[in-house]
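Section 5: illustrative case.
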């Protein structure tokens, strides 16, 4: 598919205001419709952008830096974890929030397998492990192997979370 601005033929075109653009043209395109229309009308030869295609700053690294800044401010980068929901851009308690503490308590105090605990709560084993390892439940945000203070309230105590982490480690569960 060809970019409307530069004519570059790419499998990875993106749409903005129903116009197909290559990654480079899309990245620099304005978000206001009238300005965008003028931007697209100023056509450019695709070969003039080849240097940008080859050497432009890695978009993923740039995105990662933005996500780190978000984490430092205590904001979540992904969807709401089990037991929370997002309202007004903030994490708040969901209807099933009490189930999170039950899961932690049951794992810590009962001799159940991960599979049986997961089945009881209608989760996959991997989903259960993600819950048991998730710092969000103690009011923190973990991103890029760093832990930041979250803007949301905790669902469980740090003590309970740490005891569960110790048990997971002792059992060799990753």
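Designed sequence:
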């Amino acid at each position: 598919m060809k970019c409307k601005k530069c004519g570059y033929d790419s499998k990875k075109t993106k749409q903005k205001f129903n116009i197909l653009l290559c990654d480079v043209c899309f990245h620099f395109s304005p978000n206001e419709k009238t300005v965008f229309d003028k931007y697209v009308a100023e056509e450019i030869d695709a070969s003039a952008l080849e240097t940008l295609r080859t050497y432009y700053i890695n978009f993923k690294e740039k995105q990662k830096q933005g996500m780190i800044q978000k984490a430092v401010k205590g904001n979540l980068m992904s969807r709401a974890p089990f037991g929370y929901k997002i309202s007004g851009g903030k994490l708040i308690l969901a209807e099933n929030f009490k189930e999170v503490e039950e899961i932690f308590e049951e794992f810590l105090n009962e001799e159940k397998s991960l599979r049986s605990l997961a089945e009881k709560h209608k989760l996959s084993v991997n989903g259960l492990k993600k819950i048991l390892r998730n710092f969000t439940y103690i009011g923190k945000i973990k991103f890029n192997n760093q832990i930041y203070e979250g803007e949301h309230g905790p669902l469980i105590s740090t003590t309970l979370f740490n005891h569960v982490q110790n048990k997971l480690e002792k059992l060799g569960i990753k």
